[in-house]
Structures
1.
Amino acid sequence: MTEINSTYDYHKSGKPDLINEYTICESFASEKSPCSLAFDVKKPYGALLGDFLIRLGVLNPDSIIAEAGGGYGSLMIGMLQEHDHLIDRIIMFDLSFYLLKIQRNSLRKWQAKTDFIQADIHELFASISGINLLILNEVIGDMNVACNNDPGNMKKEVNDLVRKYNLEIPEYEFFNFNIGAVRLVEEISRHNYSVFLSEHSSDPVFPEGMEYLDRGLEQGFPREIKLHKHSEFTIRFSHLVKVAQSFGREVITGPLIDVPGFRNIDSMRFIFLNRICGTDKQEIIFELLDHIREYRWMLIK
Ligand SMILES: C[S@@+](CC[C@H](N)C(=O)[O-])C[C@H]1O[C@@H](n2cnc3c(N)ncnc32)[C@H](O)[C@@H]1O
C-alpha cells in the first residue's frame, strides 16, 4: 500500500539540527572547519558555489537570488562574503520559523537587501517573480515521497507523472517515488529563472578520475535515510532531468564534489579504497568521501 512520507510537521514546528544531518554545506561552512582543513578547501561552501555558478554563467551582476530552505544561512553568508558585489537582492524562504530566525540573525550584515519569508516551498512559486536564480541546496530530499509503489498498480498521481514524463521505473519491484520533488521541478521549470539544486541522489555520478567512489554502491530508486525524528529519501535525478527537459529547459548535472573541487585525488583514493582511518584527518576524509559520493547537483537554465 502506497504511503506518503512527509517532513512538513518536523520542519514547521521542530528544531532541525543540520550538524547531525551532516549537510555538505555545514561540513564546509567555514574554511577553518575540520572538513575544509582535511581537504585543503580554502573557501566556505557558499563562496565556492558562487564561483561555480559564475563559471556556469548564472551568477552575474545585478542578480536577484531566492534561496529556499537555507538552513542556518551558511551558504548565503559564504556567497555574500565573496560575491556581494554581484547580488542586488536576496529572498530567503523557509518552512521553519526556527531556522528563519537563525538566518535573519546570521545575515544581519546584509539585512538592507534581504527579505525573510516563512512559506512552504510548494506554495510559494506562484508568488515569486523577478528573480534570476533560485537555490535549493539539500532541500528536495525533504519533499513528499510516495513509498512502496507497486509498478503494476500505482497510485493515480504517480502513474500520471510516470506516463506524462516517460519516467523509468522498475519492472516488478516496489519502489519509492519523489513525488514532491518531481512536482516542484515541474512547477519551477515553467518559469524563466535559473535553478541550482543539490541533493543526496539514488543515481550518483562520479568525477573523472574518482570512479572508484562507486565501490559498494547500489544505483537505483530512492531509499529512506532515517534522521532525528524524521526520514528523508534520496532523489532519482534522472527523473528531474526528464521533467525539466520536457519544458524545453537546458539541464546540466554532475557530482557535488565539483563544487568544492577537491585536489589530492591520489591520496584520497588510497584512504578510501583501503579504508585507512589511522589519523583524525584520514578519518574525516574517509567519512566525507563516503557521504558526498552520492550527492549530485543540477542546474536548470
Ligand atoms: C536539510 S536542510 C538543508 C539546509 C541548508 N540548505 C544546507 O544545505 O545546509 C532543509 C531545509 O529546507 C527547509 N524545508 C524543508 N521542507 C520545506 C518546505 N516544504 N518548504 C520550505 N522549506 C523547507 C528546512 O527548514 C531546512 O531549512
2.
Amino acid sequence: MITTRVREAALRLSDAPTYLYDLPALRDHASAVRQALPGVELYYAVKANPDTELLKTLAEYVDGFEVSSGGEHAHVSALFPGEPGKPLALGGPGKTDAELRLPCHRLHVESPNELRRLLATGREADVLLRLNPDLPVEGAALTMSGPFGMDEAGVRECLPLFTDRVRLRGLHSHLASGLDAPRLLRLAARLLDTEYDEVNLGGGMAVSYAAPESRFDWAAYGAGLAALRRAGQRVRIEPGRALTAYCGYYVTRVVDVKRVRGEAYAIVLGGTHHLRTPVTKGHDQPFTVLPTGDGPALRDEPVTVVGQLCTPKDVFARKIGTPLRVGDTVVFEMAGAYAWNISHHDFLMHPKPGFHYLRD
Ligand SMILES: Cc1ncc(COP(=O)(O)O)c(C=O)c1O
C-alpha cells in the first residue's frame, strides 16, 4: 500500500524508471525511532543508502554515521564539513593503511593485526574492538559469522597492545540482519553484560518485505535497552535498512506482457540492475500498480514481473495475482535501502533511472 502523496507523485512522473524518495516520511520515521531510544546513541549505517538527500534528512535525528570505507568516509565528511561535523564511526574488514589514518570519532578494529597496523600509523584513535562472539542467533535473515571481527581470543590478544594514544573504549558487535526486537534484546543482554563502559550493538533490525506493514518494534527495543543498560554505560546502535527501506520507491512502467509455455510475464522498463534487492534477498519486491495503461492485459492469472535484462535472474516478483497491462505504472515499495547503491548499474547499458524527492 502506498500513500496518496506517493501515488500522486508517481502519476506525475513523466520519466520511467525513477527512484522516488519520500523525505517527509523519512523524517517522521527517524524522529519516531529517535524518540523510542532515550539514552541510546543512534548512528546510521551509511552502507544501507548513501543518498545525499537521505543523509541530510537523517542528520537531524542521528548522533552520527557509521561508515565502512574510505569512500563512505569522504562522502559523509564532504556533506557535513566543519568542526565538529557529524561524528563518524569507521568500521569494515580489511581496512587499508590509508583508511586507518582517517579521522573519526570511533574506529572499529577487526583483528589484532589491524590494531598493530593502526598503532604503526602513529595516529591517535579511540577504538572499539569488533567482537564476533559465539552466541546463538536464531531467526536472522543473514548472520555475520565468518571473517567479521574477532573472537574472545582475538580480543585478549589486543588488550595489552593499547597505549595512551590508541585507547580502548569498548566493544562493537553486529551479529546479524533481520532480527526482531525480542531477539535483538536477548543478544543485547549478553553483550551489555560486560565490564566495558561503551558498547556498540550494531544494526540488523528486521524489515519484512513479505509484510511491509509489520514494522520493527522500536518502542519495545528502546525500553528493553533502557532496562539492560547499567549506569554509566554508553550504548550505541547503527541501523541501516530499518531506517531508510520504507522511504524509497522505484517507479516504472509495463512495456510488454506475454505468455511463454503457459507462464505469464510482465516486462517493466529498467530492472534489477537498478533495484537488486529482490535478487540478493530472494524475495518478491512488494509493489502497487497504478492503472495508467491501455495496452494488452494479463488478468486472473499469476504474473511474474521481470525487467529488461538478458538474464533469467532479472525478476522482481514471482507469480503474483495482480492484473497488469502495458502502460501501467508499477511502484515498487521498500526500495530505500540496499537498492540502487548495491545494484550493477552498467550491465546492458540501459539508461539510468531518474531520482525524484518529495520534500513536503
Ligand atoms: C557493521 C555493520 N553495522 C551496521 C550494519 C547495518 O545493518 P542493517 O542495515 O541490517 O541495519 C551492517 C550491515 O551489514 C554492518 O555490517
